């Protein structure tokens, strides 16, 4: 029989994959990988604010991630150079968060759990938070799927169809903020972007339609979570990095298979 903590960890990984699969597909299509880094790094500042204000960690990270998402979306709409801006925001928010935690009185916390995740310590409350956030993201993307897809393919076509590309970008950034808050406990701030990008990138070379890519990205995310947990249990390796390692190996196998199938 599997222990309860392993079952909760597996369910948390599956819940995270449900959200990161379709959202990660849009991140890959729109080349927003660096934005995922910026939002996830800002989560550490949210941890510091939550500890200082005696708030739930999830609430603090969600608030800061939403603030970061809104800031980036506003700057992008005004034509700012996003590569440099995101670099400054990502590393600045991470540094502010690490410094801020050192000023919180009477707090002694292991930052590695927030940087790299601690999926094996997921509680029933954490599990409800993960699945609630994942279902919210799925509902949001499902509701806006066609407008998001149209704005991703061609902004001029979106304008011609009566859509507002800036609004669709904001929808994506808000969904990404929710995923960051949800994923912090599972894989940590430094590995969130990997779970958004790697499964979607692996699915891209195998799928024949956007919907198939999103579904396949979810399947790869689930497989990565379960394989990573198995590796962690077998070799006593850190669970979060093990999940990302499994995803990277699946990506490599998918790349080889895709190249062979096109040959």
Quickly count the helices: 12
Distance between the termini: 45 Å
Helix content: over 70%
pLDDT averaged residue by residue: 85
User: What is the alpha-carbon Rg in Å?
Assistant: 18 Å
CATH architecture annotation = Orthogonal Bundle
Strand fraction equals under 5%
Please, what is the CATH homologous superfamily?
ABC transporter involved in vitamin B12 uptake, BtuC
N-to-C SSE string, H for helix and E for strand: HHHHHHHHHHHH
Outline the low-pLDDT stretches: none
CATH class: Mainly Alpha
Biggest β-sheet strands, sense, barrel: none
Structural class: mainly alpha
Total strands: 0
Shape: globular
**CATH domain topology:** ABC transporter involved in vitamin B12 uptake, BtuC
Number of domains: 1
Which secondary structure elements does this structure contain, and how are they paired or packed?
Elements (H helix, E strand, L loop, with lengths): L3 H26 L3 H20 L4 H21 L4 H21 L9 H5 L7 H20 L1 H9 L1 H6 L4 H19 L8 H13 L5 H26 L3 H24 L1
Helix pairs in contact: 1-6, 1-9, 1-10, 1-11, 2-3, 2-4, 2-9, 2-10, 3-4, 3-9, 6-9, 7-9, 10-11, 10-12, 11-12
